[in-house]
Design goal:
Number of domains: 3
Order of helices and strands: EHEHEEHEEEEHHHHHHHEEEEEEEE
Low-confidence stretches: 1-35
CATH class of the largest domain: Mainly Alpha
Radius of gyration: 21 Å
Oligomer: single chain
Shape: globular
CATH topology of the largest domain: Serine Threonine Protein Phosphatase 5, Tetratricopeptide repeat
CATH superfamily of the largest domain: Tetratricopeptide repeat domain
Number of strands: 16
Strand content: 25-35%
Distance between the termini: 26 Å
Helix content: 25-40%
Strand order of the largest sheet: 1-14-11-16-9
Length: 349
């Protein structure tokens, strides 16, 4: 089977240099030196009427591009609590925002790595305190079923919880923590991380011990699954917590191990699957391939600090990105349930 190398641009021919490999320390620098966009005009989204009537809450995280004129373009939903009306309201508002564009050598440039999270809450005294009796009953049944290792009953109750249209953020947190515990019980790291990522730590997790537990599990799962950019971001949150002090030496050791992996001459292999529309990842190296495609992939969207390119996808294609772009993420589009491998290659010196 053919294996093609696709260069991001003509300058990529010169991309292989002693800076080709990215260390964990460089990840830290990249994340901390990103220019945070300062909006000129920022329209707040309207709370969807049906969601307000149902007492439903949620959140949406968008990724978007700020073009050379300061307009928002190419916005997409990166993560969300799963309510389509919140996603649409967020997209509608953010695409109307106006920014002062970034400049390079006196010329305006794109800013291609921008994210924003919108939280939809019913009020200070609604949604973040307690749960309904109906939800509590389902939760207790599922919790007992998990203790009894009755996994079919657990899945049944989780499906019933997830099917509810009316769910406060506190209920959302309880459901996803329970689902994460179930995923851990059956040994599904990817599913466990999926649910932990959907726990809203800033609005609903009142216990600092619980907050530490969620972040600690996320950190080790991200490390295990080679999601090193995410692991670094979680690490920065963890070390701020009082509960993390006894574990600081251990956490630093893991970060050192991550640095060694990134700097090594070994491929970094990540299992991927498209749930509904696309799958995304934050890169730690400048050369990568998409291989072992089972299903259909059609588009690759590469978003870096001030560059963005879109490509078609074929099995075993390889892309090499100029090291000057930095802080790159990829969005892979294809048919639902398509599985594949993302392989990040060490750059030959």
């Amino acid at each position: 089977m053919s294996h093609k190398i696709l260069y991001a641009s003509a300058v990529a021919l010169l991309a292989v240099s002693t800076n080709g490999q990215v260390s964990a320390n460089e990840i830290s620098q990249h994340l901390s030196t990103i220019i945070i966009p300062e909006p000129i005009e920022r329209i707040q989204p309207k709370y969807p009427i049906d969601a307000a009537r149902e007492g439903r809450e949620g959140w949406t995280i968008l990724s978007f591009v700020i073009d050379e004129k300061g307009n928002v373009s190419d916005a997409l939903v990166k993560e969300s609590s799963g309510s389509e009306d919140f996603d649409k309201a967020t997209l509608k508002a953010v695409t109307k925002w106006k920014y002062q564009p970034a400049f390079e050598n006196g010329k305006p440039i794109q800013q291609c790595v921008n994210t924003v999270q919108m939280d939809y809450r019913m009020g200070k005294n609604v949604g973040t305190k307690g749960v309904s009796r109906r939800f509590k009953k389902k939760y207790e049944i599922a919790t007992q079923a998990l203790k009894d290792k009755d996994y079919q009953a657990v899945e049944h109750q989780l499906a019933k919880m997830n099917a509810r249209k009316t769910m406060h953020l506190s209920e959302n947190n309880y459901m996803h923590i329970l689902a994460a515990n179930y995923a851990r019980e059956i040994g599904n790291d990817t599913l466990q991380l999926y649910h932990l990522d959907r726990v809203t730590l800033d609005s609903g997790v009142k216990s600092e011990n619980l907050k530490f537990s969620v972040l600690y599990q996320q950190f080790y799962l991200e490390t295990t699954l080679s999601k090193f950019q995410s692991a670094f971001a979680t690490y920065k949150q963890l070390i701020k917590l009082e509960e993390a002090k006894p574990y600081l030496a251990k956490l630093k050791k893991v970060m050192a191990d991550i640095d060694s992996v990134i700097s090594s001459d070994k491929d970094i292999v990540i299992d991927a699957a498209i749930d509904s529309d696309y799958w995304y990842a934050d890169l730690v190296r400048n050369e990568f391939s998409l291989t072992n495609i089972e299903g259909s992939l059609h588009t690759l969207d590469v978003r870096c600090a001030n560059k963005r390119h879109v490509y078609t996808v074929e099995n075993n294609n390889t892309w090499r990105i100029p090291t000057s772009w930095m802080n790159c993420s990829i969005y892979v589009y294809g048919e639902p349930k398509t599985s594949f491998n993302l392989i990040e290659h060490p750059v030959d010196i």
